[in-house]
Amino acid sequence: xxxxxxxxxxxxxASMIAGGTxxxxxxxxxxxxxxxxxxxxxxxxxxKGAMLAAEEINAAGGVLGRKIELITSDxxxxxxxxxxxxxxxxxxxxxxxxGVIGSGETQAVSTLAREQKVPFFTGLGYSRFLTEEAxxxxxxxxxxxxxxxYGPMVERLLKDGHKRYCTINNDFAFGRDLNESVMADLKxxxxxxxxxxxxxxxxxxxxTDFSTYLTALLSKxxxxxxxxxxxxxxxxxxxxxxxxxxxxxxxxxxHPALGWPANAVGLREQDIPKRTIITGSDYPYxxxxxxxxxxxFAAFKKRWNEDPVSEAAHGYATIQFIKKAFEKAGKVDRxxxxxATAGLDIVHPSLGAMxxxxxxxxxxxxxxxxxxxxxxQYNRPAxxxxxxxxxxxxxxxxxxxxxLRSK
Length: 407
Hints:
Blueprint (H helix, E strand, L loop, with lengths): L13 H6 L7 E7 L6 H20 L8 E7 L4 H13 L4 E5 L2 H14 L3 E3 L16 E2 L5 H15 L3 E7 L2 H17 L4 E10 L7 H10 L3 E3 L6 H12 L7 E4 L5 H4 L12 E5 L9 H14 L5 H20 L4 H8 L3 E4 L3 E6 L4 E2 L3 E9 L4 E10 L8 H8 L2
Parallel strand pairs: 1-2, 1-3, 3-4, 4-5, 6-7, 6-8, 8-9, 9-10
Antiparallel strand pairs: 10-14, 11-12, 12-13, 14-15
Helix pairs in contact: 2-11, 3-4, 5-6, 11-12
């Protein structure tokens, strides 16, 4: 692929790497990343992926003759800060904004994007409602809709016959939406599915001590615990402590995104119960053995001296998609840009070919599904018995989207 070229800009400062000296001839793209706070591990990697793509594009001549200039900032994982930074990026001339920020921050910025008619992409906000009932013309997403994460997991849970559930999730937009959607689909598939009385737990973001909750879960004796809304440090801490308590020797576990490299980082091999936790990822370890995946991995590793995670691939692919859309539009114009995204395809490093659906600005990205495991090759949490599931099957139809947005 032509944009995987040797980098000639490795010694420059961050602003110069992104696009050279600011001028009227640059293409300004806002890049809001959660580089501190609870989502820091995601946002930092996402920013690096986006910067790598900008470097490669600029080295190859830019976009419509313009170099990309990234206006970078740190949302501190706070919605109000993300909103302020979005206004600043637009004021500084950003034509498009990318946010590697969580669903709560994404929702806040999406509202502003609609008001100001500025195209806004998310590289971390997976919540289904963002492109469904809360969706609009100026919000776009090439990453997976959370429905494509929990859909395959729900099918496997129904097949396994689990009926008695306990749930525990972080108390934020994504956790609430995921829990409600998963349990509703499970009950639709099997009316006998139930959450045991007093066994739905909500914990603050960043919670890492689960001893009280684990004692309660063990006393309830469910068939399975669904903890898909525990993210970042909470998800890792829960798995390690649950294994120490012997929880997964007595019940199964389900987490649609614990296969995310950044969600599982820090877990040790002995923390991971064998073939017990059903999960998914859009950047699994070991990475897919495809030409695009291997080239991205090598370029990212060379540039940053670290292994990429999901958000790095998303930031990279989103900048490449933005380039392609502007070239299709033939000019730097926001409305023409959005028109050009409809039906546009892109090759994601780990998810392969996908295209943007024009009626809801959601891509057809799929997900990798399997069991949480360990990779001796990469010495890190990984996935076993993994299969790729296309996303289209789990996305709403155009009529369903219209109905959701009319409420």
